[in-house]
Each structure stands twice: as C-alpha cells, then as structure tokens.
Specification:
This protein is α+β, with helices and mostly antiparallel strands and about 160 residues long. About 25% of the residues lie in helices and about 20% in strands. A hairpin with a 5-residue loop joins strand 5 and strand 6.
C-alpha cells in the first residue's frame, strides 16, 4: 500500500468505505477513545474539521480500545457519545487496533510512514497523522498535540 486511497475501512455504522473517496483532500487520521484524558480533543477536532472542510479537509476518527480499555463501548454507543457530547459530524469508523498483529492495515502503513518517539508504535489515544492531497503522510502528531494548534500545518497541506 502506498497511499491513503489504497485502504478500506468500516464506518461506525457498518458500511464499507473506500478511503480512495478522500483522494485530493487533506485528511487528519486520529485514533480516538471515549474515556481518555484526551477525549475533550473531540471538540478541537470538530472545530478543525469545520474550519477547513470547505477547502477539502476532513478528520477521520478511528476508535481504539488498545490503551487502558478506554473505548469499551460498541459502535452505536461510541457514535452516540461523540455526537451527544462533542457534536461530532466528521466521519467515524468501527473500532480498530492500531498496534500489534491485529492492527488495521491503515495504521500499519501510517506507523511505517511516520514513526514517533517510540519508533513506529503508537503510544496512546489521539495520535494524529496528517495526510496530504496526494495521499501521503505529511506529519505525525503526538496525543498531547492539541487540535487547536494544528491549523498552520493543515493550511500548509491544503496549499500544496
């Protein structure tokens, strides 16, 4: 796999999604969790999505339960929680693993493209990957990188 568009995923409501549908857009891929100290980042992610959506930007949220069992609910519970508490309208997907033998292939590719402080392994919820219009990974952000601070990087990627 060589670009975001080479992958498929299952939406939070069970539909097959070809990530090639996002070709030509700038995308922020985030592994999320509903019971994490970083969960309030959903607000900033939604604001980022809203601010740049008309320029060809979207956030893609992938719930993950690999870190401290902080995403214990099923997909319906996750979708309801995100909408009710944070007004999330950006696309959410079915729960995935981001590390290990069962990791979703998308996250295997993202980790290989941009390693972090622990090598390629994702260390916690809300690790973010910015993908350019060409489907290539531009930058990786740690869980502590607040979405409100990513606007400049998103704008640079949108300008290319």
């Amino acid at each position: 796999m060589t670009s975001l568009g080479d992958f498929k995923a299952t939406s939070i409501d069970g539909r097959a999604v070809d990530l090639g549908d996002y070709a030509g857009q700038v995308v922020l891929v985030v592994n999320t969790a509903s019971q994490c100290g970083f969960t309030p980042q959903y607000t900033g992610l939604q604001e980022l999505h809203d601010s740049y959506a008309d320029q060809g930007f979207t956030v893609l949220g992938f719930p993950c339960d690999q870190f401290g069992n902080q995403e214990p609910g099923d997909e319906a519970e996750i979708a309801s929680f995100c909408e009710r508490n944070f007004g999330v309208t950006f696309p959410l997907f079915a729960k995935v693993d981001v590390n290990g033998d069962e990791a979703h292939p998308l996250f295997g590719w993202l980790r290989e493209e941009k390693g972090g402080l622990l090598g390629s392994k994702i260390k916690w919820n809300f690790t973010k990957f910015l993908v350019g219009r060409d489907g290539q990974v531009v930058k990786r952000f740690s869980p502590t990188s607040a979405p409100e601070k990513l606007g400049g990087d998103v704008e640079k990627a949108l300008a290319v």
